[in-house]
Amino acid sequence: MTVIARLYVIRHGETEWNRARIIQGQADSQLNDLGEIQAAMTGEALKAIHFDKAFTSDLSRASKTAEIILQHHADVILVKDQALRERFMGKLQGTKGPTNPSEPSLEPMEAMLERSIGWYDREIVPYISSLTDNPDGRCRNILVTSHGWLISSFFKSMIATGVLECTKDLLEASPRIPNASLSVVEYSTRSEQRIRSTVVQYGDASHLTGTQIMRDNADMDALQS
Are 200 and 187 in contact (CB under 8 A)? Predict the structure, then answer.
């Protein structure tokens, strides 16, 4: 089996709104000091990886996280994409939960999934498919920075539909995606078989040892209280 690519998906570092448990959605909150430290620690953990592509949500907390990580990879072009934004929380943005899960200004979950999977089909699938004819055999690496709810819903949907493979234990080990945590998809081929897409890390914050890590998500929790 030959590994042809890895997709590194990272949640943005901590913000003051995370710390205060304020609903963020697509409000453009900034990384706090700890969030920048978390991003720097993530960059240090990944500095030996040669990234070929990099994508980020255009919201500042995600794009700043990516920029800090890419300080070790000055030649990589960072592409900002609104499709990678967090779920739009409408009138709830800037407030605290618990709140009304039927608030009409909320972006439907189906719409968030549609745009995240649409992004994946547009940017990642063609690129990975092109690597099956890659003559040099080098594993390609893709960096993505986004948001907790989008990342968890994307992975769970893609696993449930069989697009991505993942063990139950790995998925259940991180009920929430911590700030600056790492999820990795490995793409591999064997002879003439189809490309196999396997989740090998999910919500992994082990590289942040020694820092305070929030393992909840105010946006998600507000609607489930």
Answer: no
